Amino acid sequence: MQEVDEIEPILVPIIRKDTFQQGSRVVIRVGDKIIDYSNGFKLFLSTRNTNMHLPSNTSNIVTLINYSVTRSGL
To answer: In the chain, which residues have pLDDT < 70?
Structure first.
């Protein structure tokens, strides 16, 4: 996802990987839907917002990488 200025609450279960077994399937609840979950699933969020604030329920499970270009880095 690009240009993410805030993390929508509907994404939190996906970020936390709140999966559960439903029979032989591994599933995750997204909103009011239950969908199949793949262990190989990756989610990348990007933004140009340098003041991005992560809510406390996701800041400890999200890795923040700053790709800003600085003059000294050139």
So the answer is: 1-5
